[in-house]
Specification:
Helices cover about 35% and strands about 20% of the residues. By secondary structure, the chain is an alpha/beta fold.
């Protein structure tokens, strides 16, 4: 008998890749969508409506729920209305799933939520683990509310897992295509001083982590979903240049980034030196722990 997974945010960068890696001989998938779509052999589509806070009957009657939902942090300037959307898109998705579970009386084996290393705020050289307290600033505030909304489902499921995700590396979206925009001329940019730490993860390692959240029923609580070697932004950029070939790594001035992006410049200027302490203690094996090899793999396979 196949187990079932509900995927909220299945059309995003990580959700789309996860759908490619799921073993459909073992799992059937439900996907939540704003508009009804035709079902396929392995996937059933269900609708949800944030405006009216409605979710289609049967959507949450699954073994596992994975929730990636959230408007893109770096998609547009952080106006007051945009900030509200960034928070509400994350909080309301958990609220709506909670509402569906309360109505159906079904109890899934696990609720698995995304969060982000933005939880820790701008922390300089401080080494951060799952036990580190939250930071300050908008991203930390957003992540705290995101995680609090997930924690409200704890009594409705057997296990609750929250993954604080670092910079997801993929050629299909996120940060890497922007970094590679100047690859053709052999120049790569780092931001400001470049001394701020970046915590990153290959998209396939991240997806395997989410699949392990399902298969390993001992996994519970907070996990830093990052590779084990955070790098300063300057070293991060130099490693990519060396891996793919290039002439130079050059700084993009901090004042220019602030002028162009406003508060959203925090996305590239904040320092998050985050370590996956729990994943390593539970013997999670990274296929791509080295940044240079990770980027070469992604580019060669166009993943």
């Amino acid at each position: 008998m196949k187990e079932t997974i509900l995927l909220a945010g299945g059309t995003g960068l990580v959700g789309s890749r996860l759908l490619e890696l799921i073993d459909y001989s073992k799992y059937k998938v439900h996907i939540l969508s704003r508009k009804k779509k035709p079902d396929s052999e392995h996937i059933n589509y269900f609708t949800w409506d944030f405006k009216n806070m409605e979710i289609e009957s049967g959507a949450v009657d699954v073994d596992y729920i994975i929730n990636f939902t959230g408007a893109g942090i770096a998609d547009s300037r952080w106006t007051d209305s945009r900030k509200k959307l960034l928070i509400s898109s994350r909080v309301d998705s958990a609220r709506l799933i909670k509402q569906g579970l309360e109505k159906s009386k079904h109890r899934p084996k696990a609720y698995i939520s995304a969060s982000a290393v933005g939880f820790y705020g701008d922390r300089g050289n401080e080494k951060l683990t799952e036990l580190s307290p939250p930071g300050s600033g908008f991203m930390a505030e957003c992540c705290e509310q995101w995680e609090d909304s997930a924690k409200k489902l704890k009594d409705l499921v057997d296990r609750l897992v929250i993954n604080r995700i670092g910079i997801v590396l993929s050629t299909k979206g996120g940060a890497l295509p922007k970094i590679l925009m100047t690859k053709a001329v052999g120049v790569y940019n780092y931001f400001g001083s470049g001394n701020q730490y970046y915590s990153w993860i290959h998209i396939d390692d991240l997806c395997r982590g989410f699949l392990r959240n399902i298969t390993d029923d001992s996994m519970s609580g907070i996990y830093n979903a990052v590779a084990p070697k955070p790098l300063t932004n300057k070293d991060f950029t130099i490693d990519i240049k060396n891996a793919l070939g290039g002439i130079a790594a050059l700084p993009a001035p901090k004042f220019g980034l602030r002028l162009l992006l406003g508060e959203m410049a925090d996305v590239v200027l904040n320092s998050n030196r985050v370590y996956p302490t729990k994943l390593e203690s539970e013997n999670f094996r990274y296929d791509y722990a080295d940044l240079g090899l990770a980027v070469q793999d992604l580019v060669s396979r166009n993943v």
